[in-house]
Amino acid sequence: MVGKYSKLFLLLFVVLLSEISLAQSEWTGEYFYDEDGGETAGGTKIYVAHTIKVTEQDGNLTAHIYSQGFQTSRDIFADVDVRESEIKFRFRQKGPDDTLGSYAPGDLLLALVKRDKELLTFWHEFKPVLDENLETGLERFKIAKREQKLWTEVSTPDSRVVLQIPSNFERFRSNGILDVVQGSFKESLQVSGPTIFSGSVANTILRMEYYALPTDSDAKTLSKVYRNKTSRGKHGYKNRNLHGHDIKVFVQTTPDYFRESWFLVLNDRVFVFTAMSRNGRNKTVEHFFAGIRIDGQGDSPSDTKLDFATSDPVLPDSSLKIIQKTTPGYSTLARKKGITGSIAIRLTFGESGLVTNMQVLNTLPYGLDLQAKAAAAQLLYFPEVKNGKPSPVSKTVQYTFSIY
């Protein structure tokens, strides 16, 4: 009799675990909510895009809440509670891009509730930017269809540069001081950053990266440095004007891929906008560059259809292809100390076109680990494709530091 009840208890326990797992899996995905407040008196677009990415890790749900737009930069990691038709997000920690809000661990940020066919949003510590959207219990966030690649907006913290990027984007940000090498260590420049956003649509990688410098003259020099570091191939530079700003356009065409990069100097920052495709300058590339806005100048999201890119063809299965590997610079102190050696980093090459899960396997002192990580973040690549879909793959990359 005891054995019979034990088996029954075990069966009920397994069923309960299955129901919990099913309930959790129903909430995984990406949720979007955009606020549009028109324009300021000066013509700057008042637009904020909110994204909640819910993923499952080791049997538990976790969330990344990200808001970008007009005077807004939120970057929050949250724990998740699921209760049947409700999901709650509780503050765990801030990410590197967060400049707003002050939360304590465990604070309830917001909740989403499924009611009939509606998805209702209940604000708590996390609130919308515009007062007109403060009312709670209304339809706000919507889940992205799993078969559809949606776009969202990202911007610099001061909202001077805004662009549309696929919603599967990843980002990298370094607040450290990096050296950018110009042929030899004596000609290096010091920069802060980089900040990188990268996303993908089918066979096309789209990214923005920017670096900060103390003066305009240094920024112009840095722009030349990065243009000189581009890969070999049939390519050339063109001058053009983007919303009143002079830019350099780099185009590279090979039998395997197409690449186009735009270099912009804006006050004390250098921006590099890059698109890479396996099938030439397709509509996705055109949309990406057409959506760049500076100081409110350029197309607004409502002026452009964002769903056409889902029809891009999917490539046959292929292996990871690295297009460009950046040489890391030296930190000032490591250079003075004469530190040499190699750093190996284990990286995940995901579908977004930006490496993640950086694991330094062996270290060097005086900030060289940071130099190596920044160089890894600048890797340009096409992800591995399995069964017609991009597939993450982990590999070890080595960076050598030598001043001789």
Short account of what is shown:
By secondary structure, this protein is α+β, with helices and mostly antiparallel strands.
Please, could you describe this protein's structure?
By secondary structure, the protein is α+β, with helices and mostly antiparallel strands. The protein has 2 domains: 26-143, no CATH class; 151-401, 3-Layer(aba) Sandwich (Protein Transport Mog1p, Chain A), CATH 3.40.1000. The protein contains 5 helices and 27 strands. It has helices spanning 2-25, 216-228, 283-290, 332-337, 368-377; strands spanning 29-39, 45-57, 60-69, 72-83, 86-94, 108-115, 118-123, 138-139, 142-143, 151-155, 161-166, 170-173, 177-182, 184-201, 204-212, 234-242, 245-253, 258-266, 269-277, 293-294, 321-324, 341-349, 355-360, 380-382, 384-386, 389-391, 393-401. The chain has a 9-stranded antiparallel beta sheet. Strands 12, 13, 14, 15, 16, 17, 18 and 19 form an 8-stranded antiparallel beta sheet that branches. It starts with a helix and ends with a strand.
**CA radius of gyration:** 23 Å
| CATH homologous superfamily annotation of the largest domain | Mog1/PsbP, alpha/beta/alpha sandwich
User: What structural class is derived from the secondary structure elements?
Assistant: alpha+beta
Show unreliable segments: 10-22, 182-186, 301-312
Biggest beta-sheet profile: 9 strands, antiparallel
